[in-house]
Amino acid sequence: MASQINNRTGSIRQRLKLLQPGPMISGLLIVFAVAALQFAAIPGFERLGLMVFDIYQSAAPRSYEDAGVRIIDIDEESIEKLGQWPWPRTEIARLTQTLSDAGAAAIAFDIVFSEPDRTSPSQIAARIPDDEGNDALIESLASLPDHDSILADSFALAPVVNGFFLLKEDRGKAIELPSGMAILGSSPTVEVEPYRGSVQSLPELNQASAGLGSLSIVGDADGVLRRAPLVFLHKNELVPSLSLEALRVAQGADSILVKTSDGSGETTSAPGALVNLRVGAFEVPTTAAGELWMHFSEPAPERTIPAWRLLSNEMSAAELQHSVEGQIMFIGASATGLRDLVTTPQSDNEPGVTVHAQAAEQIILGKFLTRPDWARGLELFLIILLGGALAILLPNMGALVGAGIGMIMTIGVAVGSLLAFDQLQYLLDPTWPIVALAFVYAVQTLLSFREEEQQRAYIHTAFDRYLSPEMVRQIAANPERLQLGGEEREMTVLFCDIRGFSRISEQYEPKEVINFLTGFLTPMCDILLESKATVDKFIGDAVLAFWNAPLDDPDQFRNGARAALDMVDSLEKLNVSMPSKPGQVWPPEVKIGIGMNAGLCCVGNMGSQQRLSYSLIGDTVNIASRFEGLTKQYGVKIMIGSALADQLEGFALLELDQVKVVGRDAPDTVFALLGDEQMHDDPAFTRLQKHHQAFLQAYREQSWSEASNLLNQYEANYQDNDMSLLADMYRQRIGELSEKPIRSGWDGVYAATQK
C-alpha cells in the first residue's frame, strides 16, 4: 500500500511539474503585452492614471499659503449691490484706480472688453433719434468723455494685464504683445497647442495695458482641467497665459524666457519640446506642451475679495492697503451667468479666474507637481518586475497566497505613488503596474483552476480505492501532505471545560444534555473561530483549540487571551438569556474553567493510514489541560502559564502561585487572566495586584502571621474581583503549613496532586 501511494504521488508531482509552465508563460506574455501598451503611449490609455491623480488631488490638496495673490470676485452679492453686468467702464476704471492706488503689483483681468461700452455718452447719443429736436442733447452727450477712453486712461496708470481668448478658426486681429518671449532652443511648435484666431479687448485698452495674456483654459479629453497651459501658439508666435503675464508685470520683467529640450541640454525629448519657463525670478517646470500640472489648494476664502467691497468704499484705507499692496490681483466673475466654469479634480464648477490665480500661486511658492522624465521608465520597470515576479511565483503558491502577494504588491505600488505625490509632488502612475498584476492574477488563476480540476479528477481516480474520502480531499488539495506526522510550531493552546458537567448530566435526559451542549458549544466556537483559532476537538463538554496553525497568526497570544475573556463574558450572558429561551435546556448558573499555555507543539495530520485528523501534541498541550483542572482549586475562571503571560503585556494578570502540575517535575508560575487592557488600567485592579503581590511575598518568606493579616486586610479586594475562593484556599494552606515543620529548602512551590 505505502509503495503504491508513493509511486502514485511521484507520478502526480511529475504531472504537476509538466503543467506549471503553461500558466507561467501565459502570465509572462500578459506582462509583456501590458508593457508594450504602456511603452506605446496610445492616446486614451492614460485616462485611468489621470483619474488616480484626481483622487490624490482630493485626498491631499495643496495646503493654502498666502503667496500674494488675490481674486477680486464679481459675485452675486456684487451684482445685487452694484447693478447688473456689464457695469459701466467708468466703474471698472474706478476699480482699477482703487487697486493701483492701494499698491497692487499687477491687476489681471479675466475679462475681455471686446465691444465699446454701451453706456458711454457717445454710444447713447448714437441711439437718440436726430429728427425730434434732439440735436443739442446729442451734441452735449457726444462731447462728454468716452467711457472706454476713461478705462484706457486708468489702465495706462496701473500695472494692468488685459486678457484675450484664442480661437481655432482664423479670425480677429494679430496679437501685439507689450513684451516679447525669448526662446532658448528650437521653437516649441511640436507640442504647444496652436491657435489661428483671437477675441481681444478694444485696441486702445490693449495699447494702454502693461501686459496681455490668454484666458483660454482647455481641459483633458474628459473635460477635467489638470494642466493649465502657460504658453500658446498663435499664428506660430508664442503668447503667454494670463497668470504668466501677471507674474512678469508684477516683477517688472522685460520678457519671458522659454527653454526647449535642445536649448537646455535635455536629450530625452524631441527638439522643440518645452522644458521650462523663466519669468523674472521664477523658473517654472512644464510639460512638453508648456503646461503646468495644477495642484489645487484646499478652499481658501481669504484669497477672495468681493468686488462690491472695493467699489462701495466699504473697506478702510488701511484695510485696503493691507489687502492689496504688493499683491497680484486677478479680477473675474463667479456670479451665475457670468462665470466661465471649468471642471477640476476638486470641483465641477470652478471659475476660470481661480485657475489663473492658483497657477500664479504655485509658481510663486515653487510648489510644483511634476511628472519626471524617468516616470514612464520606472512604471515600465515595475510592470516587468512585479508582473513578472507574480507570473513566476503564482503557479507555485496557489490563488489565496498569490492574491495576498498580489494585493501587497498592488498596495505597495499605490501607497508608493500616493507618497510620491504627497511628499515629493511627483506624478507616478500606479495603474499600469496594477493592471499588469490584475491581468496576470486573473488569467493564471483561471488556468490554474482548470488544471487543478484536472488534477483532482486524476487523484480521485488514482486513490479512491485506497484512502478515505477525507484523505483524498486533502491530497487533492495538496499532494505533498501524504506524509504522516507534522511540524513544530510556537503555539497557543486553550482547554475549556464545564464545571460539574457530571452533575448536570445526571439531571437531564441524553437528548436534553445534547441540546444544552449545542447551545453552549455553538457560541463558544463562534468566538474561537472569530479569533483565528483552530477548534481541534470536543471531548464531551470540553473544547480544545489552538492558534498559529495551520496558518501563521503573528498575534496568536493576544487573540487567544481575548477569546478566553470573550468566552467568559458570553457565558454570563447565556446564563441570563438561555433559561428563558423556548425549547432550550439550560442548568442554573453554568460555569467554566479555561486553561491556557504557550510553547512548542507538534501539529499536523496524525492518526493511522486509515484515518487522519489535524491535531497537536506536546508538553504545552498537557500543561494547558492541567491548568484547566486547577481553575477549580484556585477559584478562577482562566488560568495561564508564565510563557503566555510574558506575551500579554497590558492585560489584567494576577500571579496566583508557583505550581508543579501532575506528571511534571519543573514548576511554573501561574496567573489568573482577569481582563483586557481596560481592566489593567482600572485602579481597583491595580490595588488588588499590589496587595496580592505583598501577600505572596509574605507567604513565600513563611511569614504566616503577616500573610494571614494581609488576606484579612484585603478581603474586600478579593471579593470585589470574585477571588474569595483564592483567599480561602491560601488561608487553609497557611493553616496547614503553620501547624507542622517546614521541610528544608521549601520555596513556596505547590505540588498539585490532581489533574
Please give a structural write-up.
The chain is α/β, with parallel strands linked by helices. Residues 1-20 and 462-471 have low confidence and may be disordered. The strands form 6 sheets. Strands 19, 20, 21, 22, 23, 24, 25, 26 and 27 form a 9-stranded mixed β-sheet that branches. The longest helix is centred in the middle third of the chain and has 33 residues, at 431-463. It has 27 helices and 27 strands. α10 (242-251) packs across α13, α16 (431-463) packs antiparallel against α17 (469-477) and α24 (683-700) packs antiparallel against α25 (704-713).
Nutshell version of this structure?
With 755 residues, the chain is an alpha/beta fold.
